[in-house]
Amino acid sequence: MNNDIEEILFDRDSIHQAAQRLGKQITEDYAGKRPLVLSVLKGAYLWTGDVIREIELYVNLEFIKISSYHGGVSSSNEIELVTDIRTDVAGRDVIILEDIVDTGQSLRFLKDLLADRGANSIRVATLLDKKGGRKIEIDADYVGFDVRNEFVVGYGLDYKDLYRNLPYVGILKKSIYTKD
């Protein structure tokens, strides 16, 4: 797997430091509240674990699964709700934990869904923010790292459901995904 990576962008230690920084900020911002943390599967599961361990508040945790890439290297522009949550979000403060904000379409879909269901507030904590990939204007509230417009894998992010288990985020060599 490591031979498929062109460049390592963020190692385990830097990711851990980013999780500590965001967890501390979330703790301050939500003092006295009990937010609902909504982890977006599959990509954000490692990031979610790191961040919630740094939040010094009572939190509830839910998982939601959406799909827009459908196995490719770019968004299909069609968002599919694969696995919904069971928790009623009406009146709740929700923090979406994302692996990457790229085109912004998935995040817009989620924010609209939660707003339609009556969430009190919706904020986003993302490991990676790829502003160069945006198709719609949307911002994350908490950002681990800004990342350039490259196809990245590792630390939960995948290509064809592979590479999620890499302990870092790296750029996947183009030869890997152009031969398919």
Characterization of this structure:
The chain is of the alpha/beta class. The chain has one domain (12-147): Rossmann fold, CATH 3.40.50.2020. It is 24% helix and 29% strand. It is built from four helices and nine strands. The chain has helices at residues 12-29, 45-52, 105-116, 174-178; strands at residues 5-10, 36-41, 60-67, 80-83, 93-101, 121-129, 142-146, 152-153, 169-172. The strands form two sheets. Strands 4-3-2-5-6-7 form a six-stranded mixed β-sheet. The chain has a three-stranded antiparallel β-sheet with strand order 1-9-8. Strand 5, helix 3 and strand 6 (121-129) form a beta-alpha-beta unit. Helix 1 packs across helix 2. The radius of gyration is 16 Å and the shape is globular.
Secondary-structure blueprint:
Blueprint: E1 5-10, H1 12-29, E2 36-41, H2 45-52, E3 60-67, E4 80-83, E5 93-101, H3 105-116, E6 121-129, E7 142-146, E8 152-153, E9 169-172, H4 174-178
Parallel strand pairs: 2-3, 2-5, 5-6, 6-7
Antiparallel strand pairs: 1-9, 3-4, 8-9
Helix pairs in contact: 1-2
List keywords for this structure.
single chain, 180 residues, alpha/beta, six-stranded mixed β-sheet, three-stranded antiparallel β-sheet, globular
CATH topology: Rossmann fold
Structural class: alpha/beta
The average pLDDT score comes to 94
- Rounded to an integer, what's the Rg over CA atoms? 16 Å
List the domain count as a whole number. Answer: 1
Overall 3D geometry? globular
The percent of residues in helical segments reads 10-25%
Calculate the terminal CA-CA distance, rounded to whole Å: 16 Å
Give me the side-by-side strand order of the main sheet: 4-3-2-5-6-7
Protein name: Hypoxanthine phosphoribosyltransferase
Family: Belongs to the purine/pyrimidine phosphoribosyltransferase family.
Enzyme class: transferase
Domain Phosphoribosyltransferase: 13-160
